[in-house]
Amino acid sequence: MEIIRGDGTLLNDIDLAPENAHQEVLQNIAVILDTIQKEAPMLRDLGIPGDIYGRPLPVVENILVGYIYDQIETYEPRALLGNITFEVDHMTGKITPIIELQGVREIEQ
Questions:
Q1: For the chain, what is the HEC assignment?
Q2: Does the pTM of the predicted model rise above 0.90?
Q3: Of 28, 2, 7, nearest in space to 96 by CA
Q4: 4-60 confidence digits (pLDDT tens)
Q5: What is the model's pLDDT at position 94?
Q6: Where are the domains of the chain?
Q7: Alpha carbons 6 and 9: distance in angstroms, whole number
Q8: What would the CATH number be for the domain defined by 2-104?
Q9: pLDDT for the residue numbered 1
């Protein structure tokens, strides 16, 4: 099981030619988590919705769980997800999603 933190650290050393499907899936999930919807010109529905900013933290957590599962299912169907939890900094209001990746399935094309 792999833990993916949605804080953008995986995108610091992005590899445009990952050596295996597992690395591709990790990077793709990191991109999904680090993108705000309507930010990507050709994929306007990709990412986390921007209208949740400024809402109460418990409400945001509940909304994000559904969005994250839906986004990963849509844009990275090879990922086998486990739990989604959040690391919350109540002083700044920052929420960092933490995703358990249980595996990567092969999809024949």
A1: CEEEECCCHHHCCCCCCCCCHHHHHHHHHHHHHHCECCCCCCCCCCCECHHHCCCCHHHHHHHHHHHHHHHHHHHCCCEEEEEEEEEEECCCCEEEEEEEEEEECCCCC
A2: no
A3: 7
A4: 998 888 888 888 888 888 999 999 999 999 999 998 889 899 999 988 888 888 899
A5: 87
A6: 2-104
A7: 8
A8: 3.10.450.40
A9: 84
Both structure tokens of 107: 């999809």
Which residue matches tokens 């949740």? 52
Contact criterion met (CB below 8 Å) for 99 and 4: yes
Alpha-carbon distance 89 to 10, whole Å? 20
Structure tokens at 14: 């992005």
Angle at the Cα of 67 from the Cα atoms of 66 and 68, rounded to 5 degrees: 95
Provide the pLDDT for residue 63.
92
pLDDT at 109: 62
Residue whose structure tokens are 């690395």: 23
